[in-house]
Design goal:
Layout (H helix, E strand, L loop, with lengths): L18 E5 L5 E4 L7 E4 L5 E8 L7 H5 L4 E8 L6 E10 L5 E5 L4 E3 L6 E7 L8 E10 L10 E8 L5
């Protein structure tokens, strides 16, 4: 079973595996960074930019009986801003049943992020959510806070969704 269930979390494969649910302003972009471990990040524009991935757990090596035991689901995401512009960060992660109905959701309030914010990690663990998990929807993004044309908004990278293997 895979470690990170999200595919292409750093943008190494352009926007492969991501659905661009909002692509405002100058739209999403991918920029390289000097850190060898990450290599690149997704950056937002001056209007809302959101992207989503839906994980099909039965195709990812998990069986229904194990998923019905409500294994812990850990979500991580990283965001930052530029040195000259702040932004707004958004994240919504939903656990879904076989009909894609919501079992549980993690949706923190939008985060207003000041300029020069270093990379910041968001972590959430889903536990005790009951049986029926079959899909996970992960959506994140944001925009800049000055409405500057270009790619001055929130940066996101290194997103992950993990479920431990069956014991």
């Amino acid at each position: 079973m895979p470690g990170n269930l999200l595919k292409n979390p750093h943008g190494h494969e352009d926007f492969s595996n991501w659905e661009l649910t909002e692509n405002g302003g100058n739209q999403w972009s991918i920029e390289p960074i000097p850190d060898d471990a990450v290599v690149s990040y997704f950056c937002t524009s001056h209007k809302p930019c959101l992207k989503k991935q839906v994980i099909i757990l039965l195709q990812s090596g998990y069986d229904a009986a194990y998923l019905d035991s409500a294994p812990e689901v850990t979500v991580r995401d990283w965001y930052s801003t530029r040195e000259d512009c702040g932004g707004v960060y958004r994240l919504t992660v939903s656990l879904l049943n076989e009909n894609r109905e919501v079992i549980a959701t993690f949706k923190p309030d939008d985060v207003t992020v000041p300029l020069e914010t270093p990379w910041t990690q968001v972590t959430h663990k889903f536990t005790d959510y009951g049986p029926g998990l079959r899909f996970i929807s992960f959506e994140h993004g944001g925009q800049d806070d000055k409405e500057w044309k270009g790619w001055y908004g929130i940066r996101v990278t290194g997103s992950s969704v993990t479920i431990p293997p069956k014991p």
